Amino acid sequence: MAKWGQGDPRWIVEEREDGTNVNNWHWTERDATSWSKGRLRELLVGITVENEAGRCEISELKQVEGEASCSSRKGKLIFFYEWNIKLGWKGIIRESGAKHKGLIEIPSLSEENEVNDTEVNVSKKKGDGDILKDLMKTAGTAKVREALGDYLKALKTEFTMGMILPTKAMAAQELTVKRKLSENTLQAASPALGVRIPTVALHMTELFDTAIEQLYRIFTVKDLVQKFSKSPAILEAEKGGKFQMFDGNITGEYTELLTNKKIVMKWRCRNWPEEHYAVVALNFVPTLEQTELQLDCKGVPVCEEENMKLCWQKQHFEEIKGLLQLTTLNG
Fold it and tell me: Which InterPro entries does the UniProt entry name for this protein (predicted)?
């Protein structure tokens, strides 16, 4: 029998008011179903492929059935996910201008198979247009599998943040790492962990074929935000006003608005550490017949850098360009 105070440290429950899972020994589980549905929609809807024959776009998430979860035991993460996904796509043949629609079915996305082996079936409504179906079968399928890979990466990084809590040894290691960070590296407190997390800054630029007034409106008018995000939004475009986008996955607050010039926001993703916000600044710069959007973002968690870039490039820039193109065609 072990002497008092000399037991196996894995079973020692330290005196903590928050009742934290010390040393990550006990079983914990987190439901990822709702989060996954939102992230799959973000990553899949809006995918475009084109060649000299035509252009296709995934326009709709028709069905997403299944579940996902993540469990933690003895400091290890265990993932379970099983999805049946149906997507709608539409395309146009360049030469004739003919438009066609079809479906993409992913009958079984699960942890039992690698993403590259996941079955992706492409079909088209009756009639001509097989050239577009072939485009979706090749380039389209490749992009769908890439998006599924991004989902799994986010599931295993973004969603699980905070599930493996720092032990005393990990906390000491974290402090050592932080001392070596550049003085210019922003850091933010994480109440859930009781330690500080390293962050990075991002800078991106993008050109849009529209007037500066129209681009500014797309970021500040609820109806336009809902159109490019393809989801409900809450928007109070004024200093101190709140916003919520992409089914609640993105939330924040406007801290500065200079009409047609600049927007500054406190911005966070749902699965970032609790109460941690990045600062996003959008500068609208007029150029010859175009508008340049300059994005500067400070305070992004290091592990979220690639996801942040992907979010802005695919779910903002590309979707806004699609909306502008549609507005031009309808006009």
Answer: Aha1, AHSA1-like_N, ASHA1/2-like_C, START-like_dom_sf
